[in-house]
Amino acid sequence: MAGQAVKLMLNNGDQVDCLWLDRQNTAPLLELAGRVDSRTLGRHRQDLTDRAALEHWLEGLGQGGLSVLAALDSQAGGRTAGYIYLQKGQKSSAHIGEVEAFIHPDYRDLGLGSALLRFMAEYAEGQGLMFLKVDLPAERRDLVTAYKRLGFQIKAILEDYRVDRSGQPYDVIIMIKRLAVSGNRELLYSY
């Protein structure tokens, strides 16, 4: 997985090269971090503007179930266009993966986020996960609509659930996508 290249097609017909990051190769994400500011970042959960926090988070690559896929624009010298991460759950949540994507503004509305999410869903399913979960700021209706198109369903709206970098609480929408369950896997309950 780590180090293996993946190609994804954008809506405009261009391709981006995607690379699984590992603890020895975090440069694409650090390069992206150097091109964003807090305004661009919005309420993204990983603070790309805090290099120390970012490096600490990336120490989890290869351990604890963290996988990060970076999208690189080879036509722009390998500049990082965005990324998606999957954090596998632990213990009683080991069948659930949490995802979050960030696309640099220069690459938005090209289908990159959707392509990354579809790819990560296939990867998660291959890892035996049954669900993908995403937390979205409630005011980002555009993201909610995009995730719905990709098969996610709203499961909860939590008021003042998170606090942004300025200390302001904001509402979060929790969405879940059920991944295909293999025929030999028995569900714990049915209604």
UniProtKB/TrEMBL annotation:
Pfam families: Acetyltransf_1. Residues 27-180 form the N-acetyltransferase domain. Gene3D superfamilies: 3.40.630.30. CDD domains: NAT_SF. GO terms for molecular function: acyltransferase activity, transferring groups other than amino-acyl groups. InterPro entries: Acyl_CoA_acyltransferase, GNAT_dom. This is GCN5-related N-acetyltransferase. It comes from Desulfarculus baarsii (strain ATCC 33931 / DSM 2075 / LMG 7858 / VKM B-1802 / 2st14).
